[in-house]
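Re: the request from the purification team.
They wanted to know what the chain is likely to look like in 3D before they choose a buffer screen. I agreed to run a prediction and write the result into the notebook, where they can find it.
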Amino acid sequence: MGGAQVRELDAVVVNFDAGRYRACVGPLERLYFEGRDPGFKALIQLSVALLQLEHGLTSGPAYLLSSSQRLLEETRPDFAGLDIARVKRDAAKVERWLHGGRRGARPQVILAQ
């Protein structure tokens, strides 16, 4: 990744970890369309799922969480300098929370190392 892409990804990480998921989608789409890496597609789906959960939706996020998990399985563990194993664990916790009746606070998914 070039310098501009790294800066864009750094901004995504900050926004994502702050819960500003909508701000992540456009930059992640640009990064995805540059190389069609499934890791970026997974992060797009994860961002949209978390955004939809904030708006009270459930069926769309359930599908997107499941799909992002499949894509993350294909993603290198150190993809884009992220801890993909942790992202997968965090996303799985959200998926279990959603299917378990959404009791308590929604688990967080963190991208920062």
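For the purification team: The helical segments are 3-17, 22-35, 38-54, 59-73, 84-99.
Please add any questions underneath this entry.
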